[in-house]
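Collaborator request log, item 7. Partner lab (contact: R.S.) asked for a structural prediction of Lysophospholipase L1 to inform their binding assays.
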Amino acid sequence: MKQKKQYTSIGILLLIWISALLTPRFTKGVIDDNMLPLSEGDTLTTSFVPVSWPATTIPVTDSLCRITDDTHSIESFFVALDSLRAGKDTVISVVHLGDSHIQAGHYSGQAMRLLQQQFGNAGRGWISPLKLSKTNEPDDYFISSVVKEWIAGRCIQKVKKTSLGIGGIGIQTESPSVNFDISIAPNNGAGYSFNQAVLYRGDKSMPMLPAGKSKESAHVSFDKGIHIPGILADTFHISFLTDTLQLHSTRRKQGTDTLLPASSFNSVYYGFNLTNGKPGILYHSIGVNGAMFVNYTDENYVRQLALLNPSLLIISLGTNETFGRNFTSQEFEGQAKDFIRLVKKYMPDVCILLTTPPECYKRVRVNKKRTFVRNDNTQRAAKALVDVARKEGIACWDLFSATGGKKSSRKWQEKQMFGRDRIHFTKEGYQEQGILLFRALMDTYNQTRENKSEN
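Returned to partner:
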């Protein structure tokens, strides 16, 4: 009799164990294949698995390396991240807008990689023809052309040499024949193969057709010009994931064999948006050397930026303003407010994250010799941006304070993370900042999610 009871008990335990194995459960944000993705409004009912981040070299104040967001203004972005962790087939667009700290692509590129590793990679996003405009370009892509004579327009020019696109630049040519070869760098661009490319151009420019090796695998859908006057966005669909796309201009009138004269075109091109058709984060890095808030405060520009449909807009500006001879916190604060209010007007649903600039040096003459001193205006700019974020009800990440605040430039210098001018940083220095941005976002994300799971 006792032996029968023992067999019965063992049988019950086996049934419980088998049932537990067959019960679907969440593990690190991945759902069981047999479960449907979360519908809008659904929430995770299991325990939250926090996101981790890489270690950094630069000393930081842990309590300050997080997002300040008293109004919970970026909660909708965090909800979107929840949907990606739950396996929903969606793309979350992030725009990181800035100056030379962003143009190089190391700061924003590091944040992009980390977010995509955690939430999925939807593509490389925005790329500008920066080298064709005779300036530096991120090291994970190439845009080349046989045309060498380009007129370059930039948002920092008092009198713009060309019309400008989403990247804050434009390139124009009078050549009767234009080509573009787009390629992803084999090492630095690993993981950014694409099967769709959207070309943004002026409405009077020569359209492009697939050429060379891309001729058989790609086809184009021409924009009808319904979004923004003067801007066309042509979509190139590719039948497989690729690292290259070759394009060549055509002067044929669409739908006919009529060849239009070259003089009838005003060929201006702005850049490309590269995607891969997969769910995840689509991170658009947009920076222009020398840019300030006033350079982006333009209705036509902000309306173009809205075409990227960002869920989150990260704004990293302020360094260039601090080198102005007549810099004042009050004027700077007003300039930041003007841009943010314009963003709110044309992108009312976007979450805005304002970041403060890190401390840097400036060169001055002491006893007829040029030497470096800390640029104390960065401290004033950082405080002004923190105040702007609070008054405008948007989120802020205070990089200046998180990395030590006043005299923190010494830390960057001691770690050999400054460039020669001690304004810009080395690749490693920018990558540190990218990790810290990711950490600040994820630390805040973790906290809000853990609080919800507890409640």
